């Protein structure tokens, strides 16, 4: 095999490997704009939903960082959000800071 066809073959193989690696990485990454429910991060009256019994939902949280109220955040960021008092967001409802009925 002469040098030119060999280089073309090597270039094609490298290109195929790069495409395969890129496809695998894209499959692991969340979709652009994907969101998840993050409990305990919403400010008073700024929740997206799930603020407990007797509420009409969005905008009904009574206190900042109410544990049973959630806010939509970019996928993968919820549990890394830092809150006052050395707290973080949660993917499941919390019992902290829930007003008494």
Short synopsis of the structure:
26% of the residues lie in helices and 14% in strands. With 101 residues, it is α+β, with helices and mostly antiparallel strands. The protein has 2 domains: 1-30; 31-101, no CATH class.
Secondary-structure element order, N to C: HEEEE
Number of domains: 2
Question: Which range does the strand content fall in?
Answer: 5-15%
Could you tell me the mean pLDDT?
76
Helix content range: 25-40%
Radius of gyration: 23 Å
What is the number of helical segments per DSSP (H or I, 4+ residues)? Answer: 1
Strand arrangement, largest sheet?
1-2
Low-confidence stretches: 13-26
User: Which geometry do the CA atoms define?
Assistant: elongated
Please give the largest β-sheet. Answer: 2 strands, antiparallel
Label the structural class: alpha+beta
Q: What's the total number of strands?
A: 4
Description:
The protein is of the alpha+beta class. The chain folds into two domains: 1-30; 31-101, no CATH class. The chain is 26% helix and 14% strand. The protein contains one helix and four strands; from the N terminus they run αββββ. It has one helix spanning 3-28, and strands at residues 35-39, 70-74, 82-83, 87-88. A two-stranded antiparallel sheet has the order 1-2. β3 (82-83) and β4 form a beta hairpin. The longest helix has 26 residues, at 3-28. It is elongated and about 80 Å long. It starts with a helix and ends in a 13-residue tail after the last strand. The model is unreliable at 13-26 (pLDDT under 50).
């Amino acid at each position: 095999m002469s040098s030119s066809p060999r280089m073309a073959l090597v270039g094609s193989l490298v290109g195929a490997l790069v495409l395969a690696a890129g496809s695998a990485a894209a499959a692991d990454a969340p979709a652009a704009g994907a969101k998840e429910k993050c409990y305990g991060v919403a400010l008073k009256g700024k929740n997206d939903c799930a603020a407990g019994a007797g509420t009409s939902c969005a905008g009904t949280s009574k206190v900042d960082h109410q544990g049973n109220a959630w806010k939509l955040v970019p996928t993968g960021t919820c549990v890394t959000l830092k809150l006052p008092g050395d707290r973080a967001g949660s993917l499941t409802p919390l019992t902290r800071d829930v007003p008494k009925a």
